[in-house]
Amino acid sequence: MSKGLPETRTDAAMSELVPEPRPKPAVPMKPVSINSNLLGYIGIDTIIEQMRKKTMKTGFDFNIMVVGQSGLGKSTLVNTLFKSQVSRKASSWNREEKIPKTVEIKAIGHVIEEGGVKMKLTVIDTPGFGDQINNENCWEPIEKYINEQYEKFLKEEVNIARKKRIPDTRVHCCLYFISPTGHSLRPLDLEFMKHLSKVVNIIPVIAKADTMTLEEKSEFKQRVRKELEVNGIEFYPQKEFDEDLEDKTENDKIRQESMPFAVVGSDKEYQVNGKRVLGRKTPWGIIEVENLNHCEFALLRDFVIRTHLQDLKEVTHNIHYETYRAKRLNDNGGLPP
Questions:
Q1: What is the set of domains in the chain, with CATH numbers?
Q2: What are phi and psi for residue 101, nearest 5 degrees?
Q3: Which of 82-96, 108-122, 161-175 shows the lowest mean pLDDT across its residues?
Q4: Nearest 5°: phi and psi at 208?
Q5: Residue 129 CA: distances (Å) to CA of 20, 192, 198, 317
């Protein structure tokens, strides 16, 4: 009996300590709000300023790839986008340059500074894409290049003594130039985007949009969106990566109204109503590149640089690179060869 008594006491003590299980509420309970009225200034609000200063010192990397047939104005558009001579042709243009027999990859780096913010911009051009009689599998060198940059980053990351800041050569954004035919996407366009949308952020762009009337442009945009949807091609911003309702609302508008951006590029200035504007001169007037009534270049620039640049980098790191990394580590039993 004496042995049983402590057990009984323990059971009684346990029943007092452990309350009876209650059914969980259907809606998760809100955390109890703690009185946040501060008695004095702490300085939490300086965290943003600390982050800004640190980032300003290190600077930014942004790597943008342009893909499309010759003559669609890729180099001009990239120069217009960054208001600087950053394209391959602007940097090393050769009058006798011929169309390469296979797709070549040419990367050119620049440092752009604006308002004290430095950005290392790399423009990756793909001369020879879609220019041959037989364009079968011509996206393979591009896919190989993108994966090679992931591999470089992964090798640096798994080093025992790794660098504090790993050089980032990964492609953050791929501008895919669609020919302004007004009809439909070519099989090559669909095949490229189908293969590459899994490894990089693709932003479709209708080049030289001034060759179409407003009605033709609107119809072509709708047709392109429909074809991409039918073929299950996901372009950036991808629906499944919207983080909250605000992002979803903003990105839905872009996906349903703006994509693909119908653009005109020009790095020449003209005088219009007493103002200097970037534009293209035609026999019937000047097409103003930054005028939304003329083309959607301003929307593309705001989207790529002013609102989604950081998100393009995050999706590249958290989604595309992580997918590549997981596959490589699984294939090699934990470490790359």
A1: 64-332 (3.40.50.300)
A2: -75, -25
A3: 82-96
A4: 45, 55
A5: 69, 10, 19, 26
